[in-house]
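Subject: for your reference before the review

Hello V.,

The reviewers asked for a structural picture of the protein, and I figured it would be easier to keep everything in one thread rather than splitting it across files. Below is the amino acid sequence we used in the manuscript, unchanged from the supplementary table.
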Amino acid sequence: MAKAERLMREEAKKADIIFLVGDARAVEQSINRNFAASVKNRRIAYIFNKSDLCDEKVLRAWKSYYSGSETPVFFTDCLKRTGLDDITEYMRGLKAT
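And here is what came back from the structure prediction:
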């Protein structure tokens, strides 16, 4: 595990932005805070997939929780392709700046 994290940190140095992908059914458990802290000099965005499998109330609560965050957070369902346009729009905005 330590070797994998070291390799990820090495590769992260080459990136302009890092997308950390997690499971929308277990948002808090999906976040590797050690890795996110270790690449703090890079832009980070969170993508939580499988949002279609979440309880609507829980999903709304997480969206509300992250709404004031400086870190972009996206909730997606890759099978139905929902939320992917938000990520594309975000990426286009980065390219324009």
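For the response letter, the relevant points are probably these. Residues 84-96 form the longest helix (13 residues). Residues 4 and 57 are 35 Å apart (CA to CA).

Happy to draft the paragraph if you're swamped.

O.
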